[in-house]
Amino acid sequence: MKKLWLIFAQTTTIGLAIWFLLSTVSPGLLPRPAGAPAVVTVREGGAPASAPATLTYSTAAKRAMPAVVNIYTAKEIKQQRSPLFNDPFFRHFFGNRFGEEPAQKASSLGSGVIISDQGYIVTNNHVVESADEIEVALADGRTASAKIIGTDPETDLAVIQIQLDKLPVISFGNDGKAQVGDVVLAIGNPFGVGQTVTMGIISALGRTELGINTFENFIQTDAAINPGNSGGALVDSNGNLLGINSAIYSRSGGSLGIGFAIPAATVKQVMEAIIKEGSVTRGWLGVEVRDISPELAVSLKLDEAKGALIAGVVRGSPADGAGLKPGDVLRSLAGKDIANASGMLNQIAIIRPGEQVEMSVLRRGQELKLQAKMGKRPKLANR
């Protein structure tokens, strides 16, 4: 018995010695109890041998930031002269000593995105609208004067151009594959502090009826967007352009986490038209439309609240020539279903003037097929 106890004591002593040696020299070789924290071995110089991967979007930011520019504009504002100065009685006593009021210059700032090595930059129309001078500052420190190539107030987009060599160009992403919850970065020049990157997610897609632009299909994001970010880039986690930051919902003038960007597909379509033709040409049907509410669907005896209600028809328009009448419900146009009034407006806009299209219409419960020759949308007056 003593012999067995001696063997047991020696074995236990040797085991404890081995355990102590391993725990001192190579603790990573020992099994960890459930719930125990991981042991991190530190290399010489303080770097962990097997540290967890750090979540970062620095690669995306570095890829997109060089192509995002700061835009500074100035325009001359003429002071309104008092009608009193035109009174002969007043002028008899005071003459012309007051003279003309000197003009003042108002300045503003925004952002833009370089989309071509030929110097084309996309920004918001409201950033450069009525500007007498436009100065562009690149992320690498270079500056250049810019000229306006064309504007599209109905989408609030504009294209300007600078003359510089070796320009960084952003890559377009596929906003059609974007999903709610995707991580995005907003890059711009908020409040003029300098180029800034903020992070958020896509909060919603296809936002319409906000009353911001004529044609709306916004990407909504909670990435911080502030005054000065307008015209800047909204990029995905790979640094590809998903949209142009355009507007925010705010009660204070600052970010409340509700920002809106114009999708890259719309940006590409508009900028290609402006570069090629100097303006954007859109189709026109000549109707006034309304959304179909659930209550309206019941009164019209519709199966679902989908389509666009024709509230009015412009005399002599393509719609008038096709036989559309107030009270008709437009269900499809050119083979594509119409979900609502905004969807109809966007669908009409992408059809080329002169193109013959078929429309599916409900009139007093009867389905009709009508043909219309698309017209050219009249130019929107400057706002």
From TrEMBL:
Pfam families: PDZ_2, Trypsin_2. SUPFAM superfamilies: PDZ domain-like, Trypsin-like serine proteases. Keywords: Hydrolase, Protease, Repeat, Serine protease, Signal. PROSITE patterns: PDZ (PS50106). InterPro entries: Chloro_Bact_Ser_Proteases (IPR051201), PDZ (IPR001478), PDZ_sf (IPR036034), Pept_S1C_Do (IPR011782), Peptidase_S1_PA (IPR009003), Peptidase_S1C (IPR001940). GO terms for molecular function: serine-type endopeptidase activity. Residues 274-365 form the PDZ domain. The active site is at H126, D156, S230. One of its GO terms (biological process) is proteolysis. Substrate binds at H126, D156, G228, N229, S230. Belongs to the peptidase S1C family. PANTHER family: PEPTIDASE S12, PROTEASE DO-LIKE 8, CHLOROPLASTIC. This is Serine protease DegQ. It comes from Formivibrio citricus.
